[in-house]
Amino acid sequence: MTDILDKPATSPISTSRHGDVLIVTSNNPPVNALGAAVRQGLVAAIEEAEGDEAIKAVVIRCEGQTFFAGADITEFGKPPVMPWLPTVVDAIENCSKPVVAAIHGTALGGGLEVALGCHYRIAVKDAKLGVPEVKLGLLPGAGGTQRLPRVAGVQKALEMCTSGAMVSAKDAYDAGLVDRIVEGELVQHAVALAEEVRDIRPLPKSSERDDKLQAARDNPAIFDEFRKANAKKFRGFEAPEANIKAVEAAVAKPYAEGVIDERNLFMGLMAGTQSKAQQYFFFAERKAAKIENIPEDTQPRVVKRVGVIGAGTMGGGISMNFLSAGIPVTIVEMAQDALDRGTGIMRKNYEATAAKGRMTAEQVEQAMGLLNPTLDFDKLAECDLIIEAVFEQMDIKKEVFGRLDKIAKQGAILASNTSYLNVDEIAASTSRPQDVVGLHFFSPANVMKLLEIVRGAKTAPDVLVTAMQLSKRIKKVAVVAGVCHGFIGNRMLMPRQVEATKLLLEGATPEQVDRVHVEFGMPMGPFQMADLAGVDIGWHRDPNRIENIRDALAAEGRWGQKKQAGFYDYDDKRRPSPSPRVQEIIEDFRSKAGITARQIDDEEIVERTLYTMVNEGAKILEEGMAQRASDIDVVWVYGYGWPVYRGGPMCWADTEGLGKIVEGLKRQEERMGSDFSFSKLLLEKADKGEKFTR
Ligand code: T1G
């Protein structure tokens, strides 16, 4: 079909003819975002089709990696340029000749809305479709909330609009979103379909469909049932409810009125702080992949086989990331029973995923088939990347790296999964510090998306580039961190935990502190998190050495959920309740310290735990331990569940106002005593009225 495509025009939209079919092509890399020039070009192309008798049908397609991937997010917040996207979609739908959407890649957001404006939709097998606007704190604002339920049904529309998840071409076909799935030359098939339907009238307009709405009219409870079923997931977010309301309007009102509701709901979201934070975060997570101060053309090293030392919880979880990406793993343990236990848990985890229908039995076998468990440490010599996940103790790490230095092949990357320790010190125990890097996975390593790539003083640029590229392959979001105690995430966790514990001594309860954090939008508070992770993590294990509340709990075996007792008591379904025993322990420490309990208000808890985190984040920035403020936000959203509708600690601080943050910290400075010192950068920025993230 190469003869049909003319030379590219200046506009990203070009048109060409194949017989009596007008082919409209968008060439707007990297994702054919529907920027102003694309929108103008599409309207012009429809006018061209209308104005030429010889044209009987139209195909709309895209060059490059994907069909339109949505509105151009970089245009948001700027003065609007006509035509609006809804106008473009209406122009397509009101064309007097049939318009076929030829979909490949990811037809997302406004891209799917353009396809819904077309009269027919054809897709290649591996295409994906979705309306991810909710992830930007928005809703499909170009008729999507009105057309989608009419074409795919209300339940499907609710699920797609509120999750933002992509659906496969097959799933889309089954839902009626796509008329045909094809293999091979998409343009050819699209032109053939256009020829087939050229004389069919009336044209099938999505906005005029009504059949699939009736089911919801007969069962109006569908909306509240959907709200209830998703209440936990949507907690704190504004956009999901707005999406539901827009779909409700599609059912209750004629199309022309429903789109007005959609527009009003869209503008309401766009004006709010949540969508600004979530749009900021969309770019923040992409910026995190950019590594500063390395040569532009640094090439990654080849990684064909990965070695993992330690088949415990972390080693097993880390291994699964690579196995799932089709990368062979040699996993080493010191004892057969530990090795068997570790590989057994990996298989069990895969089987649990398969039981949920998220992978097939053969994929489980495929992944496990790439695993080479061994007691022979020297087998690591065949690996291109070796990750140690041994006990979090410096002398043990140094001993392991010393051994690796002797057997690992030249050019192999030696990585530590340490969550706190000094990577430079570990690197110094080898003759090849340039090959040493930290790869800090978060537990459970096969689930949590965050990966901190800890850049040692001597870590070579290509080691960093390799780590960043690999992180994408294993579906992680990686952030480069400098060498300091706790890197970025855990370093900010420390002042939060210190102040949270002091608040208990001063009169707060674990429930109060945790409630404030959960109401803020965190998945859990500091004490719920301690009970989940384990109160005994990092404990010195001497039951006679009781220096703080945590020591006291650990000494009594109150190690958290796994022992049905920690900062809370737990029933056999792990439901928490306030613990009288913990209250006694707190009161005992309080009286020993001569502290009289006082009423502590929620605002103080925010200032002493969340504001101090912002202050620590500012120190991380001023010390160069993070490349940019937005990286800190990526760490906290992906590593600890910071509510993305607040953008992350640094974005939230900007929204609060740095002056307010400084004032709040000044109010608490005396109570925090020597545990606290102001970040100079924070004071400076607050003084100048500057922001961290924009
Ligand atoms: N607008 C502008 N730039 C975009 C973009 C978009 N929609 N999508 C991606 N980019 C940039 C991205 O910043 C990066 O830039 C490069 O493209 C490659 O992206 C009215 C209001 C399509 C699945 O939310 O999900 O339509 O870093 O690294 O991994 O109803 O990009 O190279 O400079 O992600 O191959 C709805 C968002 C918009 C889709 C490709 N659409 N994009 O993933 O590449 S709102 C979205 C994605 C809307 C209407 C509403 C992914 C992708 P740089 P990438 P990828």
Automatic annotation (TrEMBL):
Pfam families linked:
3HCDH, 3HCDH_N, ECH_1
Complex and partners: Monomer.
Tell me the protein family, please. Belongs to the enoyl-CoA hydratase/isomerase family. In the N-terminal section; belongs to the enoyl-CoA hydratase/isomerase family.
Could you say which residues form the signal peptide?
none
Protein's UniProt name: 3-hydroxyacyl-CoA dehydrogenase NAD-binding domain-containing protein
Q: Which residues form the 3-hydroxyacyl-CoA dehydrogenase NAD binding domain?
A: 306-481
Per the record, the major location class is other
Lipid metabolism is among the record's keywords:
yes
Q: Where in the cell is it found?
A: Peroxisome
Catalyses: a (3S)-3-hydroxyacyl-CoA + NAD(+) = a 3-oxoacyl-CoA + NADH + H(+)
The record's InterPro entries line, in alphabetical order, gives: 3-OHacyl-CoA_DH_NAD-bd, 3HC_DH_C, 6-PGluconate_DH-like_C_sf, ClpP/crotonase-like_dom_sf, Enoyl-CoA_hyd/isom_CS, Enoyl-CoA_hydra/iso, NAD(P)-bd_dom_sf
Q: In which pathway does it act?
A: Lipid metabolism; fatty acid beta-oxidation
> Which keywords label this protein?
Fatty acid metabolism, Isomerase, Lipid degradation, Lipid metabolism, Lyase, Multifunctional enzyme, NAD, Oxidoreductase, Peroxisome
The chain positions of domain 3-hydroxyacyl-CoA dehydrogenase C-terminal read 486-570, 605-689
